[in-house]
Amino acid sequence: MDVCAGIDIGGTNTELGLVSADGSVLWLTTFPTRSMAKPEMLLGFCTDALRKIISEKKLVLKGIGIGAPSGNYYTGSIEHAPNMPWPGIIPLADMFRGAMDVPVVLTNDANAAAIGEMFFGAAKGLRDFAVITLGTGLGSGIVTGGEVLYGHDGFAGELGHVIIEHEGRLCGCGRRGCLETYVSATGIVNTAKEWLEFEGEPTTLKTVSQEKIDSIMITDAAKAGDAFAMRLINYTAEKLGLALANLVAITSPSHIFLYGGLANAGDILMNATRSYFEKSLLKNYAGKVKIEFSGLPGNAAVIGAAALAWNEKRAQSSNR
Amino acid sequence: MDVCAGIDIGGTNTELGLVSADGSVLWLTTFPTRSMAKPEMLLGFCTDALRKIISEKKLVLKGIGIGAPSGNYYTGSIEHAPNMPWPGIIPLADMFRGAMDVPVVLTNDANAAAIGEMFFGAAKGLRDFAVITLGTGLGSGIVTGGEVLYGHDGFAGELGHVIIEHEGRLCGCGRRGCLETYVSATGIVNTAKEWLEFEGEPTTLKTVSQEKIDSIMITDAAKAGDAFAMRLINYTAEKLGLALANLVAITSPSHIFLYGGLANAGDILMNATRSYFEKSLLKNYAGKVKIEFSGLPGNAAVIGAAALAWNEKRAQSSNR
Q: What is the pTM of this model?
């Protein structure tokens, strides 16, 4: 059976999996990204694991797709990723190509998610849409006219690094006020910590020490009706809604899909985001743009990364 | 001789001209947009003038290109343009097609400028760039992968309506804090009026009554060394530089071209814009994106609008 490998490198965890042409995940493993002190360690771990499972299951590896923060489609490198353990430029596609001798495609994790959505998810048949990944950071994969928007240098779609606050929170990229410092799993935790310094309101988040608060705790508390946690989500949604309205003024997608850890907040986040979004939209776009959750099943990140490789294979066949 | 007509409808003036296939303007006329109380008046005036000049000069009209604020390429209509005398939806392409029986293309004025720049200006051979028009409002024409970014509904590229200030200045679109309320000919005049209320600093702008101040007066004063006027331009450039850096994070162009009335401020505006732009850029893009003035000669707006029609003709021939 033909398979493509998907590698989704996140700021927190990396997932490695094998995905069939119909989008089924045949095998999957996860490890903390920071457990790989050097990219060579990641390469060795992944290639060993892939060789073993491919031989055991008698599969044929047709390609590898890698989604990574600050991944550059044109160069196949991770370049100066703010939230990653490896500084500088990492030519990861070349490294994997050298080790496995199959086509390797790399782009940022959000572009991979967008291609996954287009191949296997809720964006089938759509030509203008965006996928927003709400994980450790905030990523965006933008599709216009049926093609991923890569820009002149392969780095288009860094919505998380749009500056929304003058002299705002310090970002991993070294600047201040980037959207992802407010709207991401890390961002909402930062908001919680800032507010807990000054707020007298009772909240279940006060029952744990501040270092232990994570975004899951916040979204769980909000779902359980904790008013403080709900305000945190509302504040995050307000900033997200405005940023998405501003994105629409630039690329005018028909759909925006939310994806990743923070999207687990579900309807509380979605309803507030939609409400602020519509309020902030230019009249021309009113009521025309749908915000939805990703239509990909669990392990969506790996499916997206593998879809990269499947997409490249199909593009090659259609060029012949 | 074959010609295309270009009609550039601006918030203040409308230009109508005839442009040859090499981008030469053969004939041109200008009138205040508000002198046409209804779009039917504009249609009648333009078609009468075109018929007369075409017959006199023995030209062959091959098409009409119209650039207009909130112009929708897909529908050929002006839809709810904030700065225009005609409310609602104006099916201007259909109206001109009915009257002149030639192909008619309509898009927003900034997209027209972008196509003009690609055909006849400084963007020849570029695949990823943006043109920013700084007139009564702020428009943007974004080209990605060699194609104008129209979005799902024809309304992509409304950078002037990105909200940059929470509860900021009231915009013609009915919302508050849009970029163009700060960065445009109107925006800089508004800043001047706000500051003059509170500023003790001497400035030549105090020698005229506030209602008479326009952006040309401000840029002329700045060029003559008026410190207050220079601060006005600097403030405008700061907002523009940040907005352009944020645009780069989304579409990653190689070049951004400034065009329109306010661009006449020249180096004072350009140097400050570039400086704030580089300061605000994500590290990945540093030093890679050039900001330049438009490479189109005078009457660039009409050339851009006519280029729309020439572009459409070429696309049709290559499809055959």
A: 0.90
